[in-house]
Amino acid sequence: MNTIAPAPAIKKLPPSRRILGIVLGLTGAGITNLALGYTAFSLYTRSTKFEPYDPTHDDLTTPVFKKHNPSNNPPICIDHAVKTIPLAKLKEKEQAKLTTEFCRGVWSGLGYAYQRRYLEKKYRTLEGRQDMLWERGELASSAYEVGTKITDHFEVVEHTPEKVIVRCGDSPLNTDPRPSDGLFSMEVTTDEKAQTATFHLKSVFVNTTPEGKSAEPLPWRFQFAHRLYTKLWMETATRKLLA
Questions:
Q1: Side-chain half-sphere of 237: how many Cα atoms within 13 Å?
Q2: H helices present in 27-112, as ranges
Q3: Would you list the DSSP string of 171-238?
Q4: Does 41 score more than 80 pLDDT?
Q5: Strand, helix or coil at 114?
Q6: What pTM, to 2 d.p., does this model score?
Q7: Are strands 163-168 and 154-159 parallel, antiparallel or unpaired?
Q8: Distance separating alpha carbons of residues 141 and 113, to the nearest angstrom
Q9: What does the alpha-carbon distance between residue 170 and residue 15 come to, in Å, rounded to a whole number?
């Protein structure tokens, strides 16, 4: 008996839930499949924790956040996942290289595989998508320079030795304010004294259109699903970095 529930039809979801519709589709397709069990999933992702993160955080006052949310609309979903690993367990230890490898691990890892295939099937053949990253090999080797477009859903808007930030929620070809919008940051901080590296995944989803000025947070079930998805991305990305 097939216990895998079919992914929900994205076209039936409101535009502001495009990201989370994909999240739920992936979840229903097997990420937290009942056959696996929530307990087993929790065990697999037990090293990933969530830290307090809200609209008062300094991140939301930086130039890149202000540029992509000029009206300062309130987030409809915001979270910050972390995982700390001893440097001795990592193949790469230099800050800038580790940040890029972490980013590569997110997009080429198994955690993103289902969504990558879904977006590829739906959008790759459309006009203007030829220069985007689609193949797993490309995602595993890209330098992720500013302007890099990923599977018609993400675009790199900042890349420093400590972080890679992508705009998300809709096609990068849509540069206007969007009902489904936001920034997703992949960051690495190192502690030389403790000899550890801490990996961060930060998500800030916003309706950046005028209507988003009074937007309410998404229902708890969407926030919960996104946290599960984030934990999966963290685990599949960081495990690729282990020596």
A1: 30
A2: 38-44, 63-68, 95-108
A3: -TT--S--SSEEEEEEEEEEETTTTEEEEEEEEEEE--SGGGGGPPPPPHHHHHHHHHHHHHHHHHHH
A4: no
A5: helix
A6: 0.84
A7: antiparallel
A8: 16
A9: 9
Report the distance separating Cα 63 and Cα 66, nearest Å: 5
What percent of the chain clears pLDDT 90, i.e. is strictly above it?
81
What is the residue whose two structure tokens read 């910050």? Answer: 80
Q: What is the mean pLDDT of residues 210-223?
A: 95
Burial class (CB in 10 A: 0-12, 13-18, 19+), 44: middle
Q: What is the total residue count of the chain?
A: 243
Contact predicate 177/208, CB 8 Å: yes
Residue 23 to residues 28, 46, 56, 142, Cα–Cα distance (Å)? 9, 20, 26, 24
Distance CA 140, CA 134 (A): 11
In order of 49, 202, 205, 210, 231, the CA distances from 198 in angstroms are 11, 13, 23, 36, 14
